[in-house]
Amino acid sequence: MGNDGGSIPKRRELVKSPPRNPTVSQLKATALESLTHAWTHDALTSEPLTLESVVSDWRGRLYNYETVLEKLMPSDDSNNNDDDNTTPATANGESKELNFASTGIKSLRDVVKLKFKRYSPPGEKGREIWACPLSLKELGPATKAVYLVPCGHVFAEVSIKTIQEELCPECSESFESDNVIDILPTEQSDMERLSKRMDGLVASGLTHSLRKDKSQGKKKRKADDAKQEGRKSEKRKNGEGLAKPSKGAIDSRVSGINNPMTASLTAKVLAEQDAANKRRKLAADR
Length: 286
Hints:
286 residues, mainly alpha, single chain, 8 strands
C-alpha cells in the first residue's frame, strides 16, 4: 500500500470463527479407528494381539496371554512396569491410560482364553480370516462379537441370538445368557450388564471364568481368625479362660478373693515374697 513491503491482512485472518463440532461421520470414523486398535493390539502393552493365545477379562478387553502371565509373576520392578505399560485404547473405545492394577486381574481365573475359528474365504487363496463358526462373518471392529463363558468360543452376536438352545454350537457345553460376554463393548447398557454380572459373581464367591475365587476364602479365614483372637483377648481381660489354682496350692491369705485373676496374681506376688524371705533367712543363718 505504501510501497514499504507490508501487506494488508484479510478479514478471515483477523476474525477467527469458533471451532466446529465434529460431524457424525467424523465421530464414527474416530470410534472405528479406536476400536480397530483395540481389536488388533494388547490393551496393556499395545503390542499386536496373537489371536491363538488371546484372553479376555469381564469387561471384554483383549490381552495376550503372555502379557497377563508376566504381570501376575512377582518381580521387584512390577510397580514400574505397571505404570509404563499403558495404551490409549480401552474396551469401550475411550482414550484413557490403562495399567494392570486397574484391570482387577488377580489370577488366571479372572480371564478366559478365547477360541477363534480360522476361515479361508472362497476364491481368495492364501488368505485366512477369523470368522464366526455359524455365519462365517469376519470378526473384528465391523462385527459385534461375543464369547461364551466358560468355554471361550467366539461368535458374532447375531448368530448367538438366533440359536434356541443354551449350548455352545462348537463344544456343546451349556451356558447361561448372562455369561455371553461382549467383546470390546461400546454401548453403556452393555457395560452396565457386564458390571452387574460381575457383582453377582463376586457375591457368590466366583470369578469371571466361573471358577471359585480363592482370594475370598483367604479373606474369610483372616476375618474368622481376627474374630477368634478378639474373643480370646476379651476373655483375658475378663479373667476367663485362666487355669484356676488347685485348692491345696491356694494360699490361705488369698482364699477370700473371689476373682480368679486377682487371686492368681496375688498368690504369685506372695510366693515371690516368701521365696525372697527364705533366701534372706538362709543368708542370715550362714
